[in-house]
Fold:
Amino acid sequence: ETGVTQSPTHLIKTRGQQVTLRCSSQSGHNTVSWYQQALGQGPQFIFQYYREEENGRGNFPPRFSGLQFPNYSSELNVNALELDDSALYLCASSSTQRTANYGYTFGSGTRLTVV
Amino acid sequence: QKEVEQNSGPLSVPEGAIASLNCTYSDRGSQSFFWYRQYSGKSPELIMSIYSNGDKEDGRFTAQLNKASQYVSLLIRDSQPSDSATYLCAVNTNNFNKFYFGSGTKLNVKP
Structure:
């Protein structure tokens, strides 16, 4: 069983730019969730995708958007980057039922730095 | 009020001692509770889950849940220096499988 993989591992962007982060789901998982973890904080829920549709969203502005593809891989897009967007971005895939019972398995994350 | 609260620490314990980590949550409808370990610069790793009141043991780890008090704890017996990490408490309210995380407690185990 392959795990959740994220790319790139590190990224540096300039304020105002746009960024796309990628996540390949674990085999057999149709749900992907994205979290943002600022330094010294716990992960914060951004949104979840289930079968290519957004299925729940946290308190993040519309410039955070996502996509899920037929193979269940996913992208997180952030427009008009701000300095406070600097964080570790985590992706977790799951089958809906499994998530509630067993918790997430996170990918290794993408460290985004906005300068 | 935050959904999940943890003492940020650091909590320092000597090698071989018991480390006790605590977490409180605000939503009485919460159903599932998890402890994650996060080493510096790495992603969180699931170490324990608990769903019913009482204790659940897994090796050196024991999770304790008290829904009436809205309290979850993690005990680490025979603490090792390799246990030094930040421990995150997470709660699932069954809302779109969304997890609320605490900000974590940093544990230092001194040799």
